[in-house]
Amino acid sequence: MTFALDGISYEIDLGTRNAAALRRALAAYIEVARPVIPPASLTASEVRGRLASMCGRYASVASRADLLDAWRGR
Description:
Blueprint: E1 2-5, E2 8-11, H1 16-32, H2 44-55, H3 61-72
Antiparallel strand pairs: 1-2
Pfam family, one: Lsr2
GO molecular function, one term: DNA binding
Organism: Kribbella steppae
């Protein structure tokens, strides 16, 4: 089971009985909470478009890897 609290994600292996107990304990909070939908993944062409926009030009094949590394913070 995965959950997050205070911006930190956790994972715990629970048996059926303990999982049910945790769900009961959290039921009141879950009832008033809202689900978080993960952001959609970008397609390769969207990434290239964003990189080109960031650079103000289309990246050459040779520099594309460098731009991706820079964008990823490497």
